[in-house]
Amino acid sequence: MTTARVDFIKYAALGLLATAAMPAQAQVGTETSSYTLFGTPGLILMPTGEVAADSELAFSYSQFGPNSNGTLTFQILPRLSGSFRYTKLDNFWASGPLRGQDFFDRSFDLQYRILNESKYLPAVSVGIRDFIGTGIYSSEYVVATKSLGDKLRVHGGLGWGRLASHNPIGNIGGDRPDWDAGKGGNLNFNQWFRGDFAPFAGVSYKVNDKLTFKAEYSSDAFTVEERRGTLEYNSPFNFGIDYEVSPALHLNAAYVGGSMFGAGLTIRLNPRAPQARSGNEKAPLPVKPRPARADSAAWGTDWVSTPEDQAGIRKVVADALGKEGIQLKALALTATRAELKIDNKRYNSQPQAIGRTVRVLTHALPASVETFKITVTQNGIPLSTVTMRRSDIERLEHAPAFDIYERVTIDEATPTAVKNAELPNYDTRFTWAVAPYMAISFFDPSSPVRGDFGLRLSAKYELAPNIVLSGAIQKSIWGNLDDDVHRDTSVLPHVRTDGALYAQQGDPAIEHLTASWYERPGKNLYSRVTVGYLEKMFGGVSAEVLWKPVDSPLAVGAEVAWVKQRDYDQLFGFRDYDVVTGHVSAYYDFGNGFSTRVDAGRYLAGDYGATFSVDRTFANGWKIGGYFTKTNVSAEDFGEGSFDKGIRISIPFEWALGTPSKSESAAELRSLERDGGARLNVDGRLFDWVEDGHGDAYAGRWGKFWR
Fold this sequence. Notes:
Layout: E1 2-7, H1 8-19, E2 57-64, E3 67-75, E4 80-89, E5 103-115, E6 123-129, E7 139-148, E8 152-161, E9 170-172, E10 195-206, E11 211-217, H2 223-227, E12 237-246, E13 249-256, E14 260-269, H3 307-323, E15 326-333, E16 337-344, H4 350-364, E17 371-378, E18 381-389, H5 390-395, H6 401-405, E19 409-412, E20 430-444, E21 447-464, E22 467-479, H7 499-505, E23 509-519, E24 525-533, E25 538-547, E26 554-566, E27 574-589, E28 594-602, E29 608-617, E30 623-631, H8 635-638, E31 644-652, H9 653-657, E32 664-670, H10 686-690, H11 695-701
Parallel strand pairs: 16-17
Antiparallel strand pairs: 1-20, 2-3, 2-14, 3-4, 4-5, 5-6, 6-7, 7-8, 8-10, 9-10, 10-11, 11-12, 12-13, 13-14, 15-16, 17-18, 18-19, 20-21, 21-22, 22-23, 23-24, 24-25, 25-26, 26-27, 27-28, 28-29, 29-30, 30-31, 31-32
Helix pairs in contact: 3-4
Region (Disordered): 273-299
Organism: Aliiroseovarius pelagivivens
InterPro entries: YbjH
């Protein structure tokens, strides 16, 4: 059972915004006009050579006969798409102790377009379905699509595995090897493109901008379901329609297998196309030009030697920045230079916060100050320093943002944490909030979706800018996460699989109660020490160090923790299990939005191994990625799923609402959360926020400097 904790308001807003989405990228060439009932680009059940627009994210739900499918599909690259599907098969078990019960299956698909459509040649794609699951939908295919005018497309291909279960016409490599799925989650590559193969074909006709008719000859005979008596298969011909309610919402309906009616919906989002039109935020101050140098009084420097004048300037700057959602942490002034440290509390783009800051400075600082050195900080730690000339700001206010970017320098900040003595008197150290929360658990075979809703009280106090006390208490109001359902008994220490017991007894619960100390121990170095009740299941101490140059795509870190398992009531007591856990981590940014990460070390159950991650990050803050963990725990000991793996999505509210916000909706979809490969969940890990204040993040988001 896995839990993705998110603020309830964020989930509610995200759902509403999704159905009101603005159009994704315009469709050209062989970009798909519809998704199948399996949630992939294609016709009704059969794949096509079509692809979605680059970066498109589609959430689909459909039902036909005994099949219910929920699918997440992402166009990873212009030619490559990936899908994660969760399927329910009604009354799957015909005999035995599970007789009459439903079956829940998780599967992953990949499709790659090897040839783009041209004037004479079709688009050609190759794909594999259910290549890392139980194998019920395991199949491979090669398919071509050709457009005949603007409305008609024809499709045809060859399928293996399940897509060769109706009327095969040939064989490659002899009999297709039997697949022993075991606990699921293992690659079935020894089956790929082997055994019988069969043809499939179809047509799609776009009647108008809203309505598309589809028909296909399917090579899927539903042999698994028919053999178990859950459906009746009468015909290979399927017929369907797709209706575009809006560019973001599609409805489809179909008649399948000569015996079943089906229907589904697809929500299509694209990080490149914001949900809300930009420009909803409050306009910034205009740049205030300095008077001519002939005005000697305005350009005077007597204020430098007058403490009262400098104190007044600091107050004006702090107050003005506070209205912009930016905290002034320090301000040092000379006759020609202003060096300030800021903490951006509002803007998803650091360059936007810097742009707002320099506008304030043109109003608040005497005319003699020409150089601005702005250091971005977080958790009291300087991340980088942006240096620019005031005269460039005045001259280029109405020029493109990248004209300014070419004239600034971005350097590593002085590796010294902000001190209390530097703080203006207007800094707020204590903050608190009461908000709803929602916890969601996915993919328990006996109940695919569980949830819990309640209230969360959180508070934070800064003993110093880099020493933070933080805590949160939550009280459940309604939910079923506490249902004590056990799929099997884990042979590993129960570091995660006792989640239902924590939900049952932890109400109210201390979510976390910690003290964190952040530092800059040297050039390019960052450190963190956190002690206390670190997460809902473990307390102890965690220490971390990160090496990350401001302009380098490479970062290396290490973390070690001693933790003890908390009591199920999540108050102050502990159980008798403790462990030393830790990882060495390497991060690399390829500079094209893709980054990778490897964490190698010891996990909470005492197992050793590594986690491999790949993420795609967009300039507007979207992040979509996947990961898997392999340790020395065998698939049999791990249990269902064989090893830990999942997909994570982070959607910034700024993208959805069009107003500045650092908040985001984040969700993590795991096949299952088991004890093997389980890592400590501690807030404030260094790389998660240090990278946001470094060079690549500035370059990708500098377009919002003047916003």
